[in-house]
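From the thread on structure requests for the teaching lab: each student submitted one protein with a one-line request. Submission from student K.M.:

"Model Alkaline phosphatase, tissue-nonspecific isozyme from Sinanodonta woodiana, tokens only."
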Amino acid sequence: MREFIYLCCCLSFYFTYATQAQNFGYSGNGETRDDWKRMAKEDLNIALNLKPTIAVAKNVIMYLGDGMGASTVTAGRILKGQKQNKTGEESVLSFDKFPHVALSKTYNQDAQTADSAATATAFLCGVKANLGTIGLDGRARRNNCTSASQDTHVTSILDWSLAEGKSVGVVTNTRITHATPAALYAHVPERDWEGDSKLEPMVACRDIALQLIDDNIDIHVWLFAYDHMAYEIDRTDKEPSLAEMTEKAIRILRKNPKGYFLLVEGGRIDHGHHDSKPAKALHDLVAFDHAVAKGVEMTNEQDTLIVTTADHSHVFSIAGYPTRGNPIFGLVDDTKGGFLLAKDNKTFTTLVYGNGPGHNLTHSRQNLSNADTIENKEYISQSAVPLDSETHGGEDVSIFARGPMSHLFHGVHEQHYIAHVMAYASCVGDYKADKDCAKSQIKPIINGSSAARISFVMLVILCLLATV
Ligand SMILES: [Zn+2]
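Reply posted by the TA:
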């Protein structure tokens, strides 16, 4: 009898446990543990077979996502997936697949949190600079014309590439006189001196537009708008996409047998963030991703170095604990079909800013339960500190690289190092001599006849040794 009771207990425990276990499938997208292991092994296999591309970069394409910090890359990746009706987190951006990734320290010579003018001077001219200054070294002071004397001027990869007979092009959806493209060709202590309207009369400095025209710079520029181009989410057929402009640029530049340097800037990611409108910033990030994919498709990894990075980050957060696949522009859910409440008993969005225009000074925080944060592309995300314009963030940004010498991006680097790798890989500027650049790393290939000659000489030596 005791055995019978014992057996019944065991059976009831087994059935209870087994029934419960059957009730729980895999969560999320249903990936099994074997799926995760398989994915990791595929990734491991790619890493094990990774070899550096030791070659000269005939062409260099730099993709600059203005303000594209790590949180922007992640949120944009989720948006890309959700636009394809997927949960999004597992989605892959074109540059996620680049074999070499590093970090870039973005601070300026005189500033903890950077601006786009001094950072562009760093990654295009190879020296750190003061906030707000373009194409000048750390002796120049912002908004001070007399400090920007001739000997503070620094040259850029545009000058270095042109000197070696290469072509140079710029694709941007900002004004061509805006901070990032301007660092290729201008030397000015104030980024806002794009035209002469902000320059005091009789000041000895020339504005950025004047320098572009007067200096007769041999650069391919394609202009489609008087001012900044439209945000991707607002773009009509009247304007080409960043990917279409990139394609056009590569088709023209690749006619030069000596190669080219191309700067492609996704400049409006930054503007969307300053306005604290994540829909604008992140749809532009997805457009930027398409432009990178177009460059990858049109070039050869053996002769074209592609570097994708940002100038600086933003105070932009992906916050709370939303369920996987929760709409990226939506409210943080409570995983039970409702929304999580903050300490003020109000809902909140996943995407928030540390500071910016999304802080209401006169009223308490808006209850978002009836707000359209998903479809309203003009929705301004909430922020902790009230400012007219949201600010840049000071943390490191990522560098993604593929192609010749891309393995030189391998750890935590100062931002100005980027210009040096691009110059080293393409043998221009300080690194133009064969012995000083990527060319010196290429091992001479022993062809068939010389290999036979070496074998014959070795055989003779062995015979001589044997006879001694
Ligand atoms: Zn900015």
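TA comment: The chain has a mean pLDDT of 92. The radius of gyration is 28 Å.
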